[in-house]
Amino acid sequence: MRTMQDWLDSYSGDHQNPTNQMFHWFCVPPIVWSVIALLWAIPVPVSQLRPGSWAVLVMVLAFYWYWKRSHRLAVGLLIVFALLGLLTNFLYGQLGAAQLCWLAVGVFVVAWIGQFIGHKFEGRKPSFLTDLSYLLIGPAWLMAKLLRKLGFKQVT
Question: Mind giving me the DSSP string for 3-30?
Fold first, then answer.
């Protein structure tokens, strides 16, 4: 099994260009939110589950994947997931499922366009095109950078 540091090092190799890195800071968090919001909008049997149950399930599974590889990154990402979940729950209450879904689709499309523009500057294709696991590494890569900026020397 690859270590989280192996994943981050490989991802970093595909993200050297400062402009591409900036695009990632502005695009990866909205992509993560839009996926959460789209999952939140999936109907659930109200008698058994609450709206957002699918999103929470996916966040728990992602957290578990991160936890197995890096406890510190997992905790940081759990905090982000919780904040995005609270935001999404608020928006769900204000907009309803259909409008939340349309908003999430719009954000998802615009953010992915930004990602591909960033990779044009990089001159390399996005990492996830070689391995879908890299879709989980993008948020972890940003969290590792954030934790280092906050003074954590060891993030994995």
Answer: -HHHHHHHHHHT---HHHHHHHHHHHHH
Q: pLDDT tens digits, the chain, 156 residues: what are they?
A: 789 999 999 999 989 999 999 999 999 999 999 999 999 999 988 777 888 999 999 999 999 999 999 999 999 999 999 999 999 999 999 999 999 999 999 999 999 999 999 999 999 888 888 888 899 999 999 999 999 999 988 888
| Contact yes or no for 23/126 (Cβ under 8 A) | no
| pTM (2 d.p.) | 0.92
